[in-house]
Design brief:
Elements lengths: L3 E2 L4 E2 L17 H13 L6 E5 L5 H6 L4 E6 L2 H13 L7 E5 L8 E7 L4 H10 L4 E12 L5 H10 L3 E3 L6 E6 L13 E5 L4 E5 L11 H6 L11 E5 L5 H9 L4 E6 L2 H15 L5 E4 L11 E6 L4 E2 L2 E2 L2 H13 E12 L4 H6 L4 E7 L3 E7 L1
Parallel strand pairs: 3-4, 3-6, 4-5, 6-7, 12-13, 12-15, 13-14, 15-18
Antiparallel strand pairs: 1-2, 7-9, 8-9, 10-11, 16-17, 18-20, 19-20
Amino acid sequence: MPLFISPFAQLDLVRQPEQPNEPLQAFDAADEYLLEHLHAQGLAAGARVLVLNDGFGALACALAPYAQVTSSGDSFLGALALQKNLAGNGLAADSVTFVPASATPQGPFDRVLIRVPKTLALLEEQLIRLHGQLAPGAQVIAAAMIKHLPRAAGDLLEQYIGSVQASLAVKKARLLFATPADKAAPHSPYPTRYRLDQPALELLNHANVFCRDGLDIGTRAFLPHLPRNLGRARVADLGCGNGVLGIACALANPEAQLSLVDESFMAVQSAQENWQAALGARPVEIRAGDGLAGQAPDSLEVVLCNPPFHQQQVVGDFLAWRMFQQARAALVTGGELWIVGNRHLGYHAKLKRLFRGVEQVAANPKFVVLRARK
């Protein structure tokens, strides 16, 4: 893989999760443009820099020797990549402070560098939390590849920070410069809530939760067909989002032992709050993680999964295939992986390569519910 070269450093960077012959870089031209601008502008020694949504840690690793860097984002895999890239480039693990997006980074910050996220609600919540965290004379700079930079991103910067100027395009990347202005403390519209009739639940959703304003249609197709009569089975909701599948399964199986895991810190936060509202003090494990990578082999009877088909702006079934492999490793012999997926993705054929028995539990014109037995 090519080195990430900037005026601050030359870095050898990896993405997470790693895959053989990785076709994608852990950085892009927007990272390069942002660092070139920062270097030309000058960065005072010891400046406090906040980096938001730093993909796989390119910005934070480049700046770590020159500033007090705090990095914040909503991806467990991004946080894992940051730690691996610090270590891989001879930088101390504590040279960057990581704050999950479910918490508020504590300023004051002299520079705020933002990679514009795919979900603008996450950007909005992050900008709201910057109120009161900026040092006098602070600068806020957002960066993105032009194809991933909607006009609404500039509108949000103007609404919550101050007047915005756009740079010229360089290598199909653009910077947005926001000048902080005195503004009244904003009110956050997050978390949002919606209600389900079956099971009867009100679900809370923090800003970066997938399908934040209503139940996604895949999960809607899955819910009526969740397994029942599981007794004391150990069940994982893999990629749990706001926790709806795990919570519905727990309600239908009062003795089952549930684990909910997602790589989004805001999803985990939402799932924790939703579980408590629906099930009170019933024991559960809810964690941010790299899927079931940390799960002991042969430790689960059932895995439930509505797999994602993208990582940030990259679309593909790599993450789903990896989840299926993780589920197989974690399941006992005879254990079952239950999934919902778009018909056209052909998960049935993929699962047959890993599991001894795959059957269709339910289907509609768009989705299939499949059960795969180890």
